[in-house]
Amino acid sequence: MTVTVITGAASGMGRLCVERLRGTADELVAVDLETPQIEGTRGIGCDISDPSAVTDLVDTVREIGPFRALAHAAGVSPTMADARRVLEIDLVGTALLLDGFEELVEPGSAAVCFSSSAAYQIALQGIDAELQAFISEPRAPGFLDAAAERLGDSGIAYAWAKRGVIAAAARAAVVWGRRGGRVNSLAPGLIDTPMGRQEMAEQPIMQFMLEKTPLERLGESDEVAAVVAFLLSADASFISGIDVLVDGGMLQGLVEAIPR
User: Fold this and answer.
1) Where are any strands of DSSP class E within 48-194?
2) pTM of the model as a whole
3) Which end of the chain has less Cβ packing within 10 Å, N or C?
């Protein structure tokens, strides 16, 4: 009996990942902060930023059967939390999950962690190499307090947290690879979800970003879930350690909008 774990499963892109991944494993474990009630899944409530809760989650999966896949979609956006909490959930939580599930990895196991197009957008302003190195070590002692003080604004913290997710997934690809597993990350652009609509309503720059998206529309959750399903499948058996940008061409639209 193989097990696929989906975090952030109660709504948005995580919920569509549940639908896309039905039938790919004997058991689907749906994870959210509060226990999700989704037909055909085993619901588990878990605060992914809590090390003991993640340990309990991993232990439960171990008891169910061989670990097949992790689709890690859980996270918070800049309007939902302050900088420290954004970093704690989006980045430290990702590191906890990747570290925790490492011991369950078998040949054919795979993970996809959600980053964000924001990780690319902030790079358009130039990247501080020292800050990149700092954000790539989210489990270092004192990291959260230092990162929250250094980054301050929740929007900037979110973008850097997602750069950290890309780095964490790339690093995990090396470790998981030694056990026959794969890890990738995926960066959604503007996607029509409750979280995305909240950001659109509260951040005027989001409309500018939409206007610069060549496909001239928001993405759909199922379009993202389809990429997740591919990356977790045997069809992607030699793809590991990369981030896949799913943004309708928005980043390139923004690049061309920058005065030269």
Assistant:
1) 67-72, 110-114, 182-188
2) 0.95
3) C
